[in-house]
Amino acid sequence: MERHPYRPGLSGIVASETEISQIQGSLTYRGYPIEELAREALFIEVAYLLLHGELPSHEQLADFQTLLIETGQLPQPVIAVIDSIPPHIEMMEVIRTGVSLLAHFDPQMEYGMFMSEFANAQYLLAMLPQLISYRYHQVNGSHGVRPNFHHSYAGSFWHMLKGDEPSQLEEEAFNAALITYADYGLAPSTFAARVVASTGSPLYSAVCSAVGSINGQLHCSSGIGVLDALQEALYSGNVEDWVCQEITKGKRVLGFESSHHKPQDPRSAVLKEYCSQLADALGLTEMEAAADTIEEIMAKVQKVHPRVEWHTSRLLHYLGFEPELFTPIFTVSRLVGWVAHIIEQSENNHLYQPSSRYVGMDTRKYKPLPLRS
Question: How many whole angstroms separate alpha carbon 304 and alpha carbon 310?
């Protein structure tokens, strides 16, 4: 009997066909290069593109923006639950709970059924930044900031988190970060969302599974560790010696690929450009120079490329965001990719049901326990 090949982690297995994004030398969303979108488009335009398949007209973009404005504020029952969550609970755990709660207050829900996945996406796009902002200010003892979607989406999210207005460069860099993280093929969180969607489960269930996946240390949460490693290199007094010692000790430098066979992440060039501009504008050139030095040595000695979090962790640090907000910010961005994949899955569904290979004990005979007197 022929046995199916075993591929740990389904590596190399083509599990779905998609029209959403392509990673092949470059990264494209619906055919548009990420470099062009990150530099020229608004995140809300890219969200519309991923969800609907085409870039919006002026009228469609205005309608999309209006829907976000008119969605309103975080429901009071959701706020009450967030208030009851102990302050030591991590933000991503709160987001997982919050997304599940928001399902019960989505205005598109009628008679217990969700009427439109596009409308669900719009509701979550309006509510998730508010949820993150409310929790962040609650835990830090600061006053919450009311949403104002009359700004750009990136500008509004910034305002909710920080309470001030970004400079033009800061807003452009934050907008670019949101765009570059919106989708990346069949990443683990996206695959988790598609698997749940393939069972016919509602969108909110699929999104909750994706949130649980993106919070994993092997997905994107390592951005905090990347920043710690970079700061450690700076504090050492000699960045070149630090990275050479790490390599000599056989340690993995966080933020870099584990193998020289992996190609460079197509998002890196865009994000590195904004890191450089921000560092120059904000007087943070020492950290950027250290990052450049580490990159050069890793490329020369280890022949490996930086992962995307090598750049995003610096970019968000330069923008003044606390490390605890890194993954929540990515979650808001990736939300549109998840929903686009959930919709695509439901339109041409196939239930994911891979096989497993049994490697346990051979068949054994059951022996009843002796009867007790």
Answer: 13
